Amino acid sequence: MKPSLLTSQPSRRGSHRQADSGLGGEGGGGAASAAESVFRSPTAAFWIVIHGVCCVISVFLGFRFSRVVFVLLFSPSSTTTISSVFTSVPALHAAVTNTTTTTTQMRALVLASSPPPPPEAEQNSMKSRVVVGRHGIRIRPWTHPDSEETMRAHWIIERVQREQRLQHGVRSPRPLIVVTPTYARTFQTLHLTGLLHSLLLVPFPLTWLVVEAASSRSNDTAAFLARSGLHFLHVPFPHPMPEDSRYWRTTESRMRLHALRVVRDRGMDGIVVFADDSNVHSMELFDEAQRVKWMGAISMRILTHITGLSTSRGEDHKSPVPIQGPACNSSGHLVGWHTYNPLPNTGATFIGAGKTVLPAKMEWAGFMLNSRLLWREAKEKPDWVRDLDEVGKKGEDIDSPLCLLEDASFVEPLGNCGRKVLLWWLRAEARYDSNFPTGWTLEPVLEATAAANHSARIDASPELPSNSKLMAGNQDSRNNNIST
Amino acid sequence: MEKGIWGFTILIVCSLASRTEGLGMDQNRQILGFRGNAGDALDDDPVGRLKVFVYELPSKYNVDLVKRDPRCLTHMFAAEIFMHRFLLSSPVRTLDSEEADWFYVPVYPTCDLTKDGLPLPFRSPRMMRSAIQLIASEWPHWNKTEGADHFFVVPHDFGACFHYQEETAVERGILPLLRRATLVQTFGQKNHVCLKEGSIVIPPYASPQRMHAHLLPPDIPRSIFIYFRGLLHDGMNDPEGCYYARGARASLWLNFKNNPIFDISTEHPSTYYEDMQRSIFCLCPLGWAPWSPRLVEAVVFGCIPVVIADDIVLPFADTIPWTDIAVFVAEKDIVRLDTILTSMPTEIILRKQRLLANPLIKLAVSFPQPSRPGDAFHQILNGLARKLPHGSSVYLQPGQKVLNWTAGSVEDTYPWEK
Fold first, then answer.
1. Which first-to-last residue range defines the signal peptide (chain B) (predicted)?
2. Which chain A residues touch B341 with a CB distance below 8 Å?
């Protein structure tokens, strides 16, 4: 017990109880034994007296008053220590006056056992400013993020990434030639707008070669491209898109070949990327295109309605989303192709009320080639490529870009050897009989009822259930027409 | 008289102007390229500038310990072992002790590991003492200087104080027998008992092979703003949480665990090195000791280290421009860490990244095997070479004794059995 009286190390627990209830017992016992020790050592007596004083003060204050205060008062450090002690003492008082006893016990724990740290070491350079021992954990009152700071952080990240691209990215980027076959239909503007926004983000010089099948609405596309802000080339294709959807694919392939002939005839230099208007492109695809030497291919994920339906039935583990792309062996060489396994009737099938187009065995999207492959005379042109005029001449089925080549094994697999999916194929089309206004501008309702036989006006489909609001709301009927 | 004053002031102004001009030039050099003042010193070649004699101690002091526990080769205190191996085959080594400038004592005091791999420092003072008694009795060089031209590698938590708990380490102080020797240690804190004048602060060991195995190409975009993985609360040794890291790590967690730009947690992901390469800032707060291999890993992976440790002395502070590379945040400013880091101008951030990309700096903090010019081994030798020639206080009169061989705790004087 006596050692506990004489130690200056404050105990962590039950200080309040000790001060109050133990006071009588310890104080009494201490006094009795103190009488003997007084004659032995005056310092021990001194400490006992101090302890008694502290106990009395604690009774009045309501918590344990530490003797460390006296140590600091009489220590050889300067007056700033004393002032810091006195600034903390009013805090002690403030803590006491309006709190319950348990709270003061807690405050005592924090304040009594961690003396204010020694002042700045200007006058005491030998001692470190940093104190070993118990420290408080600083928590600010509002620990939630500030939205402005988060925005600034994202801006910094973007700037750093831009700098990284400048430093480590492509040094001298080659221009891209994006070949897109398109035809007038309900969702044409939708798809073209999507593709346009993707192409606007590409950081390389770009030419958008849009091949459009002949139709009566050819001004729509021209107007759209003029507004686009990209460098484009609108190439008309002499034949219209056939009504029968089974022949859409061959017509598109022929449109692409037509575009390649344009590239060859104009001597355009760059990398030809086949981008269908309905697909979704990743920006990395265009970064990978810069690495093409002669002809490259990346992996493309195919999203069709078949897979969508099967997942809704809970069988997605049986039918994984198919991928078209190069297959590599472990040493990174092209050994084959992953292809989509088509159903017996390729082209289009009726699914529900809409018509959906399924992909062929090998789609054009995902391939990219150096335009010099197409030129008639180009130095170092490899001999495994066929002459462009030969392709499709004899009416053969041009179903994939591999038919441009004699030997398909020279295709370079890109995107980490086909492991990265950089392109998603999907074909979302409206109902075959749906119509839409020119340029997607809607005239007011009043004029619509008046001009009922205008050629560009909306016709209600005879198969749909008739609405009472048919005449009043032409827009509603148009909405009902469109289905994916 | 007045003319004299005029002349004096003109002289002062001119010298100040030339100084600031010089500083401006240096700034320009530093901004334009990474070959500022620091680049020159990093390139210094110690070969030919000093000679080191390696004592031949019995293998119980070094090799046998490693044989018994090969984990010593991969933990963060392995610098002592690799320094010995480097010196054995280095061109600065001399076999003639008379011509040596520096003497190296190859003893591995940190290679006494528990079952979990943590080093026990309780026998280290005795091992040191036993080794020094051996060299003092067999060679004359110790007594000539009482160790002032000897150097020891002590990479433990608090260096030559040989304890993992800071309060106890401060109480013990540096081992009395090492008070005159040059200490090569990882611990560095200003005005601290365990860092003595003239010590060389080195980076902790981080395995270069492991780091290079996880290297990503530099064009992987950095998308994490602030990254930290490590202990935030030492529940076993400090359940209350007010002692560990002086409350800094707990403060980090409690203030920023909900902040989306902070990616901090106590997990041990297998993609730790890859994640550092995808981060812009890597936090390096103090733990039980202010240093950690996190700093080395951040520098190697190009992530700007955010050092949160008051008064820390960083490795090779005289050659590596830490203020230009790292961000220093005072412990009291942790609560404002998000404001501090997001309000840094982007030019400064990009400049720090450019300087960090300097391969010389990455090499200077690593311990590759075999050694390459400019790596941490060579920087240590550079530091030793810069202390040459030895001052007059190094050499003692014959028979003069400065060190107190009986100082320190009693347990340290017990003989060391191994």
1. 1-22
2. 153
Per DSSP, A27 falls in state H
Phi, psi dihedral angles at B53 (to 5 degrees): -105, 130
In the numeric block, the tokens 């997990």 are attached to B267
* Residues in Cβ contact with A389 at an 8 Å cutoff, skipping those fewer than 6 apart: none
Asked if residues B308 and B248 have their Cβ atoms less than 8 Å apart, the reply is yes
* Residue B31 in this model has a pLDDT that exceeds 70: no
Task: Report if pTM > 0.80.
Answer: no
Q: Residue B170: its chain A contacts at CB < 8 A? A: 132
* Inter-chain CB proximity A153 and B190 less than 8 Å: no
C-alpha of A224 from chain center: 30
Find the residue in A nearest to B288 (Cα): A132
- Specify the pLDDT at position B39: 52
Q: Taking CA atoms, what residue in A is nearest to B333?
A: A138
Q: Which has more pLDDT, A439 or A148?
A: A148
Distances (CA, A) of A418 to A22, A297, A323, A324, B126: 78, 8, 10, 9, 61
Q: Whole-angstrom Cα distance, residue A127 to residue A75?
A: 14
What ipTM was predicted for this assembly?
Answer: 0.84
Cβ distance of A135 and B189 shorter than 8 Å: no
Chain B residue at shortest CA distance from A164: B219
Rounded Cα–Cα distance for residues B380 and B49 (Å)? 13
How many residue pairs from chains A and B have C-beta atoms closer than 8 A?
114
Indicate the Cα dihedral angle B318, A124, A91, A133, nearest 10°: 60
Contact check, Cβ <8 Å, B217/A136 = no
Residue A77 to residue A117: CA distance in whole angstroms: 12
The single-letter code of the amino acid at A26 is E
Smallest CA–CA distance from A162 into chain B, residue: B221
Classified as helix, coil or strand, B202 is: coil
- Could you give the dihedral angle defined by the CA atoms of residues A47, A49, A53 and A55, in that order, rounded to the nearest 10 degrees? 70
Q: Across-strand partners of B226?
A: B262, B281
Pair of tokens at residue B398: 């014959």
Contacting A residues, span 162-191, partner chain B, CB-CB under 8 Å: 163-165, 167-169
